[in-house]
Write a structure and sequence with these properties.
The structure holds two protein chains of two kinds.
Chain A lengths: L3 E3 L3 E4 L5 E7 L5 E8 L3 E10 L2 E4 L6 E7 L2 E6 L8 E8 L8 E2 L3 E5 L1
Chain B lengths: L2 E5 L2 E5 L4 E8 L6 E6 L5 E7 L5 E3 L5 E5 L4 E6 L8 E8 L11 E3 L3 E6 L1
Parallel strand pairs in B: 2-11
Antiparallel strand pairs in B: 1-3, 3-8, 4-5, 4-9, 6-7, 7-8, 9-10, 9-11
Chain lengths: ~110, ~120
């Protein structure tokens, strides 16, 4: 089975800190995605990547950036954390094409204080 | 653009009762549709998917969903609820971009929290 691993389950950071969330997949998937999940709002796409060094903005990219230097790793960066970025962050990967769907990591619950 | 709407943010059933979670989609092209389940403090897990092979799709844990083009629906059902089914359920549609590129991107509904009472 494809495995998507997010480096931290829980994180607490201070306002203004630079925060890195790491995601690694082990099945050579082309596409990787970062979502945030908030109660009542469902999953909202922050950024996705369809190849090494390639990225596309999702629906809510403001305040975030991403990095994909290797195919298996996709990092989400909060340049200057703010309290409104407190959320559950979900990483996913996909083989590509419409029929495959995603494999998700376990999520990182980030609290910014 | 494709979208999905899940009717009912919370559904409550008794153990042993029928589970029905509703999902309607909007798509200008034949859609690919998915149901995912999320248990507390975990990521999402694929329950089942529709990829145009058969309109009635069977998934894991006894769930199934029926694609109805005339109703633009893809409702999730289970004949008899179990306590372990308590979770949040998400319907999703695969995006199709002009020119054929999709990158496998999904658009998710708002989610439905299923509560199962003893």
């Amino acid at each position: 089975d494809v495995k998507v691993t997010q480096s931290s389950r829980y994180l607490v950071k201070r306002t203004g800190e630079k925060v890195f969330l790491e995601c690694v997949q082990d099945m050579d998937h082309e596409n990787m995605f970062w979502y945030r999940q908030d109660p009542g709002l469902g999953l909202r796409l922050i950024y996705f990547s369809y190849d090494v060094k390639m990225k596309e903005k999702g629906d809510i990219p403001e305040g975030y950036s991403v990095s994909r230097e290797k195919k298996e790793r996709f990092s989400l960066i909060l340049e200057s954390a703010s309290t409104n970025q407190t959320s559950m962050y979900l990483c996913a990967s996909s083989l590509g094409g419409q029929a495959y769907g995603y494999t998700f990591g376990s999520g990182t619950r980030l609290t910014v204080v | 653009a494709q979208s999905v709407t899940q009717l009912g943010s919370h559904v409550s059933v008794s153990e042993g009762a029928l589970v029905l979670l509703r999902c309607n989609y909007s798509s200008s092209v034949p859609p690919y549709l998915f149901w995912y389940v999320q248990y507390p403090n975990q990521g999402l897990q694929l329950l089942l998917k529709y990829t145009s092979a058969a309109t009635l799709v069977k998934g894991i844990n006894g769930f199934e969903a029926e694609f109805k083009k005339s109703e633009t629906s893809f409702h999730l059902t289970k004949p008899s609820a179990h306590m372990s089914d308590a979770a949040e359920y998400f319907c999703a549609v695969s995006n199709f971009l002009a020119g054929g590129t999709s990158y496998g991107k999904l658009t998710f509904g708002q989610g439905t929290i299923l509560t199962v009472h003893p």
